[in-house]
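Hey Z.,

So I finally got round to the NAP thing we talked about over coffee. Here's the setup:
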Amino acid sequence: MEHDSSRSGYHEPKPEQVGREENDWENEDLHDDDLRPIVVNLIWAQARSTDGREGAIGVGGGMPWYLPEDLKHFKSLTISHPVIMGRKTWESLSEKRRPLPNRDNIVISSNPQYRASGATVVDSMEAALDLARQESIPDDGIERNELWVIGGGQVFADALPYAHRVFVTDIDAEVAADVFAPDIEQLVRDGQWRRVSETGWMQPKQVSPKIKAIAKLGTVHANQAQHTAGGTTSETQDPQPVAIRGYRFVDYERTDPQSVRQAMI
Ligand SMILES: NC(=O)c1ccc[n+]([C@@H]2O[C@H](COP(=O)([O-])OP(=O)(O)OC[C@H]3O[C@@H](n4cnc5c(N)ncnc54)[C@H](OP(=O)(O)O)[C@@H]3O)[C@@H](O)[C@H]2O)c1
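And the result:
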């Protein structure tokens, strides 16, 4: 496991801290790395797969679409906070885009030898959640009152029991997909989660061909993936971008905040 040496160690509450009055938390004897609450947010963008399944988020190790408005939204929410991602999502970022700047990048891998330059590698979701709330010394300017789990499918499924809020960009498009997000709408129907807010449907702005070409570095377009999935990768056919009819932002929260699982390591 790779650790960032600038971080302080995590400590369980001292026995004498148990049962203290609420305003004791302002006691100057407390250190920055004492146990503190942290809000766990999940964020993803999803569309419908070509076979009609909702929650499509990835294909061929990349994103099935390129939507700059979503990337801007993602950045505005996650900036200055810790971000937790799976090893495959880390590898899906182009080398120029990783680590995600002005965020504490934490990567989960079961491989103890795995290195991710500019990020800290841990071996479990619990270790990632624990690390995310530890202040670094000296102060790195990262705000550890909340963290963002940014994918992919395996990590979203692991993180959901710990999540307070989920932020979904709903994309109206059909895409080739091999990775899916948790079915958050089913959880709403089951009464475990509720929609807090949603924007209306918005139209994506036109993207210039030059920007599209750059975007291909970190994006797998739908028909390129279909060729690859069928074992008939065509080098002659230029991949076409996915047709996005609209997008909207939908925010969810748990109906019972007490049901959030606490990370115990
Ligand atoms: N649309 C979106 O918003 C969005 C967001 C993010 C990603 N994506 C897409 O999602 C896809 C990647 O998702 P994915 O599900 O295939 O992979 P992933 O969740 O990104 O990464 C999976 C890997 O993370 C490690 N890992 C995860 N949980 C672990 C645990 N509990 N303990 C130890 N290691 C753990 C393992 O790495 P090792 O194999 O090294 O052990 C595992 O193979 C890509 O296509 C990406 O583009 C989409």
